[in-house]
Amino acid sequence: MSQEFGPQNNATPNADRDVQWERSVLERLAFESLQEQRLRRRWSIFFKLATLTLIMFAIYRFSDYTDDAAEKLGPHTALIDVSGEIESEGGASAHDVIPALNRAFSDDASVGVILRLNSPGGSPVQAGMINDEIQRLRGEYPDKPLYVVVEEICASGGYYIAAGADKIYVNKASVVGSIGVLMDGFGFTGLMGKLGVERRMMTAGENKGMMDPYSPQTSKQKAYSQAMLNEIHAQFIDVVRKGRGTRLKETPETFSGLFWVGSKAVEMGLADELGTVDSVARDVIKAENVIDYTQKEGLPERMLKKFGASLGGGAISTLLSAKRPSLH
Q1: What positions carry a catalytic annotation?
Q2: Which end of the chain is more exposed for a tag (fewer CB within 10 A), N or C?
Q3: pLDDT band, very low/low/confident/very high, at 115 (cuts 50, 70, 90)
């Protein structure tokens, strides 16, 4: 019996040693793998930080270079582009235009400022904020003129901004005017009735759903909306009258929402003369060298857009834009 079971009892310590050895090897491999992952992660963080530091340094150096170039150039004309629809985001927003205006006016080397306008209009709030800032800066820097140069179009909200300038220069074929306000949308109640679709919406407040396209609009709600549009229109007209003064030759059509070509706009007093950025800088401001002060989109904004971070906000803005008054 002892000879039969002896070898099995002797094998047990060897088997335990083999298991312990395997466990030790596996633990060592796992530990080394974990160390390698940590090291790789640390290097990844290091390279990302190094890249970010280089980018920030490059932006800083570029900014310094721009400022140095302006100083070396000496007296110059400051140029700011206001292009596209005027809204709370983008290059034609108050958020971008106002800082550019402040930099242009506060620079001792800038002799005058040109706003190059190409806009069909947009938000009366954004246009009003820019116009207000133009008035403030003109009061603070009375010896530094601000001129608007229209290329393709300066309509509605674009003209709201332009009215604050010392003078407005246009091309003979530019589109100018459209001094009016609109608030558009769609109504599907008739179609829903034909299809037998019932709109079920609950609100707290008699007029909470007044702009809902799937619900009928009462005469009282229409009158309220129209009164609001009339009030904004009156504000627009007041800005134009104050900005243009005696140069404006009012007719019954001036504030009707119509628009005209540049040569006709000059006749009507909506614009002053024909001109371009180069001709105004050279012949009017007397500073032929032009430096662009337009606010450029920053690196963080570009990266957010690249990765789609603003997708949700953009979708909401699209849904709401048709329900807000706009100057187009």
Answers
A1: 156, 208
A2: N
A3: very high
Burial of 158: CB neighbours in 10 Å, binned 0-12, 13-18, 19+: buried
The whole-number average pLDDT for the span 31-55 is 76
Kindly give the pairing relationship between strand 175-177 and strand 259-261: antiparallel
Summarize pLDDT for 309-326 with one digit per residue, the tens: 444 444 434 434 444 555
Mean pLDDT check: name the lowest of 22-31, 126-135, 154-163, 252-261.
22-31
**CB under 8 Å to 105, separation ≥6 — which residues?**
78, 113, 137, 140, 141, 144
CA atoms of 26 and 297, how far apart (whole Å): 53
> 148: burial class by Cβ within 10 Å (0-12, 13-18, 19+)?
buried
Express each pLDDT in 165-200 by its tens digit.
Answer: 999 999 999 999 999 887 766 665 666 566 666 666
- Which residues are bridge partners to 114 per DSSP? 79, 147
- Residue 270: name the closest of 150, 189, 186 by CA: 150
Q: How does the average pLDDT of the chain come out, rounded?
A: 79
The rounded distance, in Å, linking the Cα atoms of 157 and 154 is 8
Q: What is the DSSP letter of 305?
A: H
Integer Cα distance of 176 and 156 in angstroms: 8
Q: How many residues does this entry show for the chain? A: 328
Q: Within 10 A of 149 (CB to CB), how many other CB atoms are there?
A: 26
